Amino acid sequence: MLAGDNCNEDLDGCADHPCIIGTNCTDMTPDEQVAQNRAFVCSDCPDGYTKDAEICVDIDECKLNYNCTESEQCSNTQGSYECVCKKGYRLDTTSKTCLDVDECNEKTADCQQKCTNTGGTYTCSCFEGYIMNTTAGLCIQDSSLEAQCKNASLEDCQTSCRFKDNSSTAVECFCLNGYAVDSENHKLCNGNGINVYCFGRTNLHNVTVLVTEGQI
Ligand SMILES: [Ca+2]
Ligand SMILES: [Ca+2]
Hints:
mainly beta, two-stranded antiparallel sheet, rod-shaped, binds calcium ion, EGF-type_Asp/Asn_hydroxyl_site, calcium ion binding
């Protein structure tokens, strides 16, 4: 910027901070000022920012345009955005991709009986002879199975009684995930304290019990 009686003083054209916040001001030399007829130049907002009134504000790419995979979701950041794994997916450090978490295999699902892994989540279901109470997410033994268990003198299983695999008549006691049926009395459950689900309240064998990790 030029000043003085003879326009022979070079002042800092940026001294009064004429540019909006977030941009840079460049002072013109006297020659440049004469040539361009301006005393300073303001830079554009940095990449990822846009001018909004008197300030550069972050662009929310997640609302506009972003490039994430099916298993990722967009997370806005200042000046950019990043793709993070969706709920139910976990970053695989080797492949650098988000892979589905197998909640059934990792024992983090809260299924009472059967667990089926799916992309991003899992589903729970019941053994044959049980009806899912979808409201409570509990498996309720039906009356015909209950009668068959009673006929087989298995009405006092520690957890409950079910049909054996591939059978609609033979029944057996079973235990919650993480526990094994005692190999001698076939009714009690032995837990090793590992891979035990934390169920909260569960209703098996018409008895409401509070099952917490490490207990049954
Ligand atoms: Ca952004
Ligand atoms: Ca899953």
